[in-house]
Design brief:
Blueprint (H helix, E strand, L loop, with lengths): L5 E5 L3 H18 L3 E5 L3 H4 L1 H7 L3 H12 L5 E5 L11 E5 L8 E5 L12 E4 L3 H14 L3 E4 L5 H9 L5 E5 H6 L8 E2 L14 E6 L3 H7 L5 H16 L8 E6 L21 E9 L6 E9 L4 H17 L12
Parallel strand pairs: 1-2, 1-3, 6-7, 6-8
Antiparallel strand pairs: 3-10, 4-10, 5-8, 5-9, 11-12, 12-13
Helix pairs in contact: 9-10
Ligand PBG binds next to strand 8 and helix 7.
């Protein structure tokens, strides 16, 4: 007997199709059921011009969630960094699969790295978070660069470099990896230089909150460390009351080791490493003022502890004046 296919609702952008396809394969493997992609088209897909005005990625998330709530699809895959921090009660994030590389990267002309860019180099990014941190880095490291606001999908953005309109653009490693263009990266930016967006590099698999059977099978794709990390990062973002386009960077990862690793050292095993470091940053887009803090402790073992970790770091950031740096928004 052939089992009925599970329906995965997806946007039709190249990135969305790539990540939905990858998750579809994984889900089909754990469930033994075929997974069928159902393309959800929104006004935002039809008109890029209007997307800026109607509110960025929010429209896509809303359209996917409407399809889930109407029962037209069984589950959906989101780029976590594009997902609002408020979760509707009727829907559940059933799995956070193992996170992809969370770093931001540069695609530059002539294989240039960030520190090789010539005086006056123009770097394209529409993200106030990236602008703030790149400009702050430039100020403290004697780099003379200009951040230029751009928008559009990954192809469009890389196109600015190929056409010679910009010296470099900033993108997420994860997106390039998923669409098979990671080879075009000319510099992987250290997270000490640019902290990624909360949830960057992670996907979230969402389904109806009352579908216990589906939640259970999707849960097999969940990576507990990824879940703890992104929950803390998104809690930090929510506590800073920042919109998705605000200049907030956050990353929870393994803390640096106090001593170099030897071959066979058990600390290399993530199961044995029990510590997590959470870092957060906010700054003005011109890079003149930033508040960056970090905290290290045991990997939170429950949702509530991960949420508390993010809130605590946000509270410390607010106490150091973070709120005053968050007035700016992307256009
Ligand atoms: N805002 C666009 C977006 N949303 C998710 C990704 C891919 C990276 C990810 O999944 O975190 C990107 C592209 C980018 O920032 O370069």
């Amino acid at each position: 007997m052939t089992e009925k296919a599970l329906r995965l609702g997806t946007r039709r952008s190249k990135l969305a199709m790539a990540q939905s396809g990858q998750v579809a394969q994984a889900v089909s493997q754990v469930t033994g059921r075929p997974v069928e992609l159902v393309e959800i088209t929104t006004y935002g897909d039809v008109s890029r011009e209007h997307l800026a005005q109607i509110g960025g990625t929010g429209v896509f998330v809303t359209a996917l969630r409407d399809a889930l709530l109407r029962g037209e699809v069984d589950f959906a895959v989101h780029s976590l960094k594009d997902l609002p921090t408020t979760q509707p009660e009727t829907l559940t994030l059933a799995a956070f699969p193992l996170r992809e590389d969370p770093r931001d990267v540069i695609v530059a002309r002539d294989a240039l790295k960030l520190t090789d860019l010539p005086r006056g180099a123009r770097i394209g990014t529409g993200s106030p978070r990236r602008m703030a941190q790149l400009n702050a880095y430039a100020r403290t490291h004697g780099l003379d660069i200009e951040t230029v606001p751009i928008r559009g999908n990954v192809d469009t953005r890389i196109g600015y470099v190929h056409k010679g309109e910009l010296d470099a653009v900033v993108l997420a490693a994860a997106g390039l990896h998923r669409i098979g263009r990671i080879d075009e990266v000319t510099d992987f930016l250290s997270v000490d230089t640019v902290l990624p967006a909360p949830g960057q590099g992670a996907l979230a698999i969402e389904c109806a909150a009352d579908n216990a059977d589906l939640i259970a099978v999707l849960g097999e794709l969940d990576d507990p460390f990824t879940r703890a990390a992104v929950t803390a990062e998104r809690s930090l973002l929510a506590a800073l009351e920042a919109g998705c386009s605000a200049p907030v960077g956050a990353l929870a990862d393994l803390p640096p080791l106090s001593a170099p690793l030897e071959r066979g050292d058990p600390r290399a095993d993530r199961q044995i490493v029990k510590e997590m470091r959470l870092r957060g940053v906010v700054g003005t887009t011109d890079g003149t003022r930033t508040v960056q803090l970090s905290t290290t402790g045991p990997v939170p073992q429950t949702h509530d502890r991960a949420v508390a970790l993010g809130r605590e770091l946000a509270a410390e950031m607010l106490a150091q004046g973070a709120a005053g740096l968050m007035g700016e928004r992307a256009h």
